[in-house]
């Protein structure tokens, strides 16, 4: 669960702008997610979306901060995956979440969003999703 030095640099460079306006980023993320995966919308029926957007921005910031050592946050990501099972999330939804995230980041950056940035964020999301799905799998094993 590691990123290349180029990935880390691209993510951190990209995050400088994203962190200045996390509300726009997370609003775009949820708007896109609900468009491409309307089945996830009910999972947020009882959520305070403002608080949810803050949690998402914090989670992304945690990944950026630990991009050079994602193993350090693997337990937190696995725990997040276990919690998401309780919310009704499934492994099949991780693809849509990743697409919505990359779309939101790309839209935020506009023409300055490079292929290197895209590749870096895709790699980071893949690592995060793998850790979360591993945590989800343990939740399913315990409930079986």
Descriptive account of the structure:
With 144 residues, the protein is mainly α. It has a single domain (5-143), classed as Globin-like (Orthogonal Bundle), CATH 1.10.490. 74% of the residues lie in helices and 0% in strands. It contains six helices and no strands. The protein has helices at 5-18, 22-36, 49-65, 74-87, 93-109, 115-143. The chain starts with a helix and ends with a helix. The mean pLDDT is 94.
Structure summarized in a few sentences:
This protein is an all-alpha fold and about 140 residues long. It has one domain: Globins (Globin-like).
Task: Give the SSE map.
Layout: H1 5-18, H2 22-36, H3 49-65, H4 74-87, H5 93-109, H6 115-143
| Radius of gyration, whole Å | 15 Å
Low-confidence stretches: none
| CATH architecture classification | Orthogonal Bundle
β-strand percent reads under 5%
Percent of residues in helical segments? over 70%
What is the overall pLDDT average? 94
* Run of helices and strands: HHHHHH
Query: In CATH, what is the class?
Result: Mainly Alpha
CATH topology: Globin-like
Sheet with most strands:
none
Number of strands: 0
Question: What form results from the Cα inertia axes?
Answer: globular
Distance between the termini: 28 Å
**What structural class do the secondary elements suggest?**
mainly alpha
Number of individual domains = 1
CATH superfamily: Globins
What's the helix count? 6
